[in-house]
User: What shape does this take?
Amino acid sequence: MKKKGGLALSLIIIAIVLIVGIGIGVFYFSGSQDNNQSNSEEIEQGIKICDDVRDIPERQNCYFELAMNEGHMVCDKIDNTNSCYESLAVEKEDHTICNLQQTTRQNKDSCIWAYMWQTSDYSVCKEIDTVSVKDSCYVVVATRTKDISWCDKIETTSEKEQCLSMLNLVNAEN
Assistant: This one.
């Protein structure tokens, strides 16, 4: 008899845990949808406020501040979109923000290069598509670190030779 009572009690406890867990899940997911919706509404309200600013430089600054607080979605409202993505990537310490630009590959590469320059995160050079920009990134890294192995990553022969020569001179002086 005790086993049946213990089994029934265990089943009741399991049912209660499941019901509570489902309730928490429903509450959490419905709350996150509300948060996403309210965040989207806040962004739209912020954009409307910026739209109403008459002075063009002040309006651009308003969009820029909104983007720094709310995210990349606002960057497309700014005349200098690339600058917004670059600043946001550095501010949020997330170079993948550069990939969200709906403009040219060159702008994305420029954004990643600027991110590397400001954060000294040298690993991002490999994510640059344009060879000349990627090579330039590796030259900067090699120069900053005085590590000749970065020159080996350079694709353009003349750039690679120039990097190696420059670092051999720097290393010979030290």
Q: What stands out?
A: Helices lie at 2-51, 56-70, 81-91, 105-119, 131-145, 157-173.
